[in-house]
């Protein structure tokens, strides 16, 4: 087949890679990367704040820049964390009334909600590009780092959130139920 490629190790066939598996693989790699970056940001943020507290209250010496870099890490963590929370279905949803409606009304309201949510995310991402452009010219107070570092978290994080929002919402709107493996691992396909 034209869409299959044999993968061989040491002369023996180890498996078959299908091109249709590429989006799922890319999503898995992206999710793993976001998880690793978020974990590193959280560890750094906690360490920087601990160093600031110890420096200020134990050694009576304030280390310049730790508060600033911890804030940058927190901004990135919040923006990436929104997508991570969406992936794990941890955002609050109020569906007390909608679950009592017929399925066609549930799908209609769900579709409208999805389109409004996606429109909002597109507006946020497009609006953030002006802020990122300003951040290229402005420096932070303590370390004189370009503010493009924290400002870039908005378009990156909200684009990732839009991806996870689409993945979490579309199967339900299209009437496709997730298999047990997909529900457990949160896979796209």
From TrEMBL:
Parts of the chain that traverse the membrane: 36-59, 108-136, 148-170
Primary site of residence: membrane
Pfam family membership, one: DctQ
Membrane topology: Multi-pass membrane protein
Molecular-function GO terms, alphabetical: transmembrane transporter activity
Keyword Membrane part of the UniProt annotation: yes
Compartment(s): Cell inner membrane
Superkingdom as given in the UniProt entry: Bacteria
Family, as annotated: Belongs to the TRAP transporter small permease family.
Subunit structure: The complex comprises the extracytoplasmic solute receptor protein and the two transmembrane proteins.
UniProt protein name: TRAP transporter small permease protein
Organism from which the protein derives: Martelella radicis
